[in-house]
Amino acid sequence: MRCVLLVWVLSAVASVGGCDSGSDAGPSPEALSSSEGATTAASTTGMETVVPARAGAAAAMGDGTEDATTGTVSPADGTAQDEPMTAPMMATPMMAAPMMATPMMGSMAGAGGTAPGDGDAPDPGMDPAAGEEPVDVAMSDDDGACDRACLIEFMSGYIDALIANDPAQLPVSENLKYTENGELSELGDTVWGTATELVADTRLDFADPVEGQVASHFVFNEGSTPVIYQVRLKVSAREITEIETMAVRRQGAANGFFNVSNMKPEPVFFEVPSQPVSREELKQITELYLDYLEGEKHGRDLPFAEDCIRYENGVATASGRGTFEAQSFWRFQVTRRILVIDEEAGITWGMFPFSQSARALVVGEAFKIMDGEFKMIQAVMANQPAKAWD
């Protein structure tokens, strides 16, 4: 009996030890470890999704991270994808289910955050433990929040679409309000059919994530003819709900002011304030300037820097603190529309009708404020209807 048992044990041991690479036995422990790790990664990161690269507002619309060298979209976790897996990957319910692009995914990727599937947390639209398939996620106001970088990307997308004469590129709301030079228009009309190229180094952006607004001054060409342009976008839930624009051409420019060469912003506009200034303080300093325009304050009462310059359609109309003090005779009736307070850049911007009539001089004015002073002022202005945004 003992002999029989010993023979049976020796036979069993021999059968196990006799497995070679040519046998059809299961994978080695190393291969099993690799497979289990791969399966775990799949269950926590989700399927790898490759999306085509897009120009302009790609980040704002929720595309992935594009590799500038290859033009491909790489995983957000930075893991190497060069070596193929040698062990078979076990299919999981989440892997088998198709990946649905949800508004949540677009908004988080566009804001520079971690899109679902990029980090350790599972996609909020599914329950991996239960093996559920992805479901569409309703986007809340918080989910649709757009930070400063996101707003700037929306402006980049707007400019790209304008130069391409293709408004269909823009994510606009069904209730979009669009004006050009104070008149209600249809998106795609007017300059959307004439703009041909952006003039280099003329773009100056201001963004306000608190209000969801971004504005810009720049110059574009209509063929060989330059146009000084400013635009404000209102962004809500990753859609553009308002577009307010002004196009200024040499012929008919307000006061005859039109100098494209001075529309390249002064370097101080791009300086980052060493000491952050609160929204309240930026607004209060801007209000002082509006008081000055209405004759309620003298130029000597305002904190103009010694080398502050004011440009209007590219024409320097004040240079140095003394000139602002000498121009203390204004009596405008200003509609106070401070629309953008860019705390990071230390810039405020608004569109200000200078009288209360139906048609007025409307000035889109940007103020660079640092160390409690007006460092530089840049304005784009036109005589136009003034009540469209009342």
What does this structure look like?
The chain has 390 residues and is an alpha+beta fold. The chain has a domain at 148-385: Roll (Nuclear Transport Factor 2, Chain: A), CATH 3.10.450. The protein has helices at 2-17, 29-45, 58-61, 93-96, 103-110, 148-163, 279-293, 321-326, and strands at residues 172-180, 183-184, 197-198, 204-208, 213-222, 225-236, 239-248, 309-312, 315-319, 338-342, 347-353, 359-370, 373-385. The strands form two sheets. Strands 1, 2, 3, 4, 5, 6 and 7 form a seven-stranded mixed sheet that branches. The longest helix has 17 residues, at 29-45. Residues 1-141 have low confidence and may be disordered.
Concise summary:
This protein has eight helices and 13 strands. The chain is an alpha+beta fold and 390 residues long.
Please give the structural blueprint.
Elements (H helix, E strand, L loop, with lengths): L1 H16 L11 H17 L12 H4 L31 H4 L6 H8 L37 H16 L8 E9 L2 E2 L12 E2 L5 E5 L4 E10 L2 E12 L2 E10 L30 H15 L15 E4 L2 E5 L1 H6 L11 E5 L4 E7 L5 E12 L2 E13 L5
Parallel strand pairs: 1-7, 8-13
Antiparallel strand pairs: 1-2, 3-5, 4-5, 5-6, 6-7, 8-9, 10-11, 11-12, 12-13
